[in-house]
Write a structure and sequence with these properties.
Blueprint (H helix, E strand, L loop, with lengths): L3 E7 L3 E8 L4 E8 L5 H11 L7 E7 L2 H8 L5 E6 L5 H4 L24 E4 L2 E2 L5 E3 L3 H13 L4 E5 L8 H13 L4 E4 H4 L5 H32 L5 E4 L5 E2 L1 H4 L9 H16 L5 E6 L4 E7 L2 E2 L1 E2 L2 E2 L5 E2 L3 E2 L1 E4 L5 E5 L5 E7 L18 H7 L6 E2 L4 E2 L2 H16 L3 H24 L10 E5 L3 H12 L3 E4 L6 H5 L5 E12 L5 H21 L7 E11 L6 E5 L5 H17 L8 E12 L20 E7 L2 E9 L8 E3 L2 E4 L4 E4 L4 E4 L5 E4 L5
Parallel strand pairs: 1-4, 4-11, 5-6, 5-9, 9-10, 13-25, 25-26, 32-34
Antiparallel strand pairs: 1-2, 2-3, 7-8, 11-12, 13-14, 14-15, 14-20, 16-19, 17-18, 21-22, 23-24, 26-37, 27-30, 28-29, 28-30, 31-32, 33-36, 34-35, 36-37
Helix pairs in contact: 2-7, 4-5, 10-11, 10-12, 11-12, 12-13
């Protein structure tokens, strides 16, 4: 009987496994150390540790860091780019911008492909789609011979103006496939049929580079799961907040970049919605980084342009998440000016924090939390034993002695800076958009989110913190809550006062047909398919655009224009009803509905169980005798006044003095701050 749903999320330090039982609606979790050399090993270890019989698994979904890590480390297969003559250096020239405008010495990292791996072909399509010069067959065949001789295994074909007429790209692909049948070939028009060659070329190149890596990983994992008895499709979460089957992943591997980050944002929205909050900020703090997401009116913010490294854009829709170098393993250090800093450098999983006793000597946030009593001496149910003496030595030698501080004060300063860094990141995603953080709930999760959540909220005057039942594996749970999803786009530039609505509808229908074919290919029935339209619009003369939903019926365009005016006013405090509005691009989102777990509210239990122990915990410059509770014993309705520590397998929750922690019907810890808005 297939009565289990399993989700796996691979993080930088731990790999999390979430197991939902359809029969009794129960959730169990397990954590194993990640294996950076081969992430699949940790996935299989997690399945084994969770004692999961794969024959009983109805659905297995997976958020993976394989694509993201490959782009960060640049460990790529032998690859090449084939482009129009004269456009070889487009991805190196970029758009001329810099990440830090005022740092004259800080350069943007180089392109994903070296110049010697970029080749030109004398073909040309003009701006209106007319083929001025077709692909020269003999030169294309000779180029294929050279690429084959160089051992190239994956190729990106990127021709100028192919977004309006892809025929030359298609012909080049046919020639390369004929001469190099084993090679993986990506064309820019198939990946992103949009104007602006740098954005399109870079997205296509990233897709080509990830193809062999992601395909190999997915094929091997599929084979291992099938060997264990799993008989359904493996669903892989993509950056847009949906999932894909392996057959489509092989065509669009770039969509798996930022896969795990999206899972956390989806889970944060679910937790907030379940608890009655339409506005929420997700604080996903792991071992290496913290990811901040934003939910307003129950909707996650998304973006159509993002990057793993500045200057190398990826133009697929993605849940908008701000990542900063603030995790449990972030290193505290003193800069050349003598100031205390925290991150973005990290001890990672190996050697890890000093307290791991794996050779690390620099202090981290984990070391500071351990020294101050906020963490116990075990992590992941005894998987890791922490040595507080090593933490004390690291903080004393690197921070306390150089700054003339007592060791506890130095440790608290380390955490204060980490909390301030995270609070600043929250301000960037909220106040920058004219949103007041005090109107939001903070959903704190990840292995370290619940340790810091209350203090970060206090920095921002956020009154309520929600800690999910299994904060350390909340991102994994997010993988269980998504539908199959595909996002398609096409250029359509026209003034709304003069647009041919019949032609607009025809262009939408063309995209919808492709979207429906993808869902059919992934086994989604027509009854479970939903296709939504949207448009990117701007005031005439503007450079940037805003995406708005496009409905159906005779007033669809009029309603979309009104939505654009309203959204522009909300984001920029400016509305110009008398100014012409221009359509810039059309988009279609195809959803294949999947069945999702249903959670049951808990029954009320007002009596708080006895603490499992007491320990001294350092708050605000002094030590407090603090009770420690086992979270498994805390039921709906129980209330605890801080200071308190709540421990569980996958995380530890800190309730500062005078704050109130209450367990709600969904078994979230709801912390109400003693001060704030």
């Amino acid at each position: 009987m297939q009565d289990l749903r399993v989700a796996v999320d691979v993080g930088g330090t731990f790999t999390d496994v979430c197991i939902f039982n359809n029969n009794d609606h129960s959730m169990s979790v397990t954590k194993v150390p990640s294996t950076p050399h081969d992430p699949m090993v940790a996935v299989l270890n997690g399945i084994e540790r969770g004692d999961i019989d794969l024959k009983r698994v109805e659905l297995l979904s997976h958020g993976t860091t394989v694509a993201t890590n490959a782009l960060i480390t640049r460990k790529f297969p032998t690859a090449a780019m084939v482009t129009t003559q004269g456009f070889r250096d487009t991805i190196e020239i970029r758009d001329g911008t810099k990440d830090d405008l005022w740092d004259a010495y800080k350069d943007v990292s180089g392109p994903y492909l070296r110049r010697r791996d970029r080749f030109e072909i004398p073909e040309r399509t003009d701006y209106s789609g007319n083929i001025v010069k077709p692909v020269p067959e003999s030169e294309a065949v000779e180029l294929a011979r050279i690429l084959k001789k160089r051992g190239v295994t994956t190729i990106a074909v990127c021709f100028i103006n192919s977004f309006i007429n892809p025929e030359n790209e298609k012909r080049m692909k046919e020639i390369l496939q004929c001469e190099m049948p084993e090679a993986s070939i990506t064309t820019s028009a198939d990946i992103l049929p949009e104007i602006f060659e740098h954005d399109r070329f870079n997205t296509a190149i990233a897709n080509a580079l990830l193809g062999p890596l992601v395909s190999g990983y997915v094929e091997n994992l599929e084979a291992e799961l099938e060997k264990g008895g799993y008989g359904s499709d493996l669903l892989l979460l993509h950056s847009g907040g949906g999932s894909m089957t392996p057959s489509l992943v092989k065509e669009f591997p770039i969509r798996l970049a930022a896969s795990g980050i999206a899972a956390g944002a989806i889970a944060a929205r679910h937790v907030a919605e379940q608890s009655g909050f339409d506005h929420a900020i997700g604080l996903d703090m792991g071992g290496t980084s913290t990811d901040i997401s934003l939910v307003t009116d129950g909707e996650l913010h998304t973006t159509n342009r993002w990057e793993v490294e500045y200057g190398h854009p990826i133009l697929f829709p993605s849940i908008e998440v701000l990542s900063i170098g603030a995790g449990g393993g972030s290193l505290a250090h003193i800069d050349i000016a003598g100031s205390l800093r925290n991150g973005p450098q990290s001890a990672g999983a190996d050697p890890g924090p000093a307290c791991y006793d794996r050779g690390g000597t620099q202090p981290t946030n984990t070391d500071a939390n351990l020294l101050l009593g906020r963490l116990g001496n075990e992590l992941a149910g005894g998987e890791l034993n922490l040595q507080d003496g090593l933490s004390e030595a690291a903080i004393k030698n690197s921070i306390a002695d150089p700054l003339g501080l007592e060791v506890p004060a130095a440790a608290e300063s380390i955490l204060d800076i980490a909390n301030a860094n995270m609070a600043d990141a929250v301000r960037l995603v909220s106040i920058r958009r004219g949103l007041d953080p005090r109107d939001f709930a903070l959903v704190a999760f990840g292995g370290a989110g619940a340790l810091h959540g209350a203090e970060v909220a206090r920095e921002l005057d956020i009154p309520t913190v929600l800690v999910p039942p299994n904060p350390g594996v909340t991102s994994a749970m997010g993988c269980l809550l998504v539908d199959i999803q595909h996002d398609l786009s096409g250029m359509f530039t026209a003034d709304t006062n003069q647009v041919d609505e019949h032609e607009l509808d025809l262009q939408f229908r063309t995209l919808e047909k492709t979207a429906a074919e993808r869902l059919w290919k992934e086994g989604v029935s027509e009854n479970d398919s939903i296709i939504e339209r949207s448009m990117s619009m701007r005031y005439q003369g503007q450079w940037r655009s805003l995406e708005v939903r496009m409905g159906s019926g005779p007033d669809a365009l009029t309603d979309a224009i009104e939505s654009f005016h309203s959204e522009h006013e909300r984001q920029f405090a400016l509305r110009q009803d008398d100014k012409p509005v221009e359509i810039y691009r059309i988009e279609v989102r195809a959803l294949g509905k999947t069945s999702k777990p249903t959670f049951k509210p808990a029954e009320r239990q007002d009596t708080v169980p006895d603490a499992i122990g007491n320990r001294s915990v350092y708050f605000d410059g002094s030590w407090h005798d603090t009770p420690v509770y086992d979270r498994a014993g805390l039921g709906f309705g129980m209330k605890i006044i801080g200071p308190a520590i709540i421990e569980q397998l996958d995380s530890t929750t800190v309730v500062p003095p005078n704050d109130t922690a209450e367990i709600d019907e969904w078994l979230n810890i709801r912390i109400s701050l003693s001060t704030g808005a």
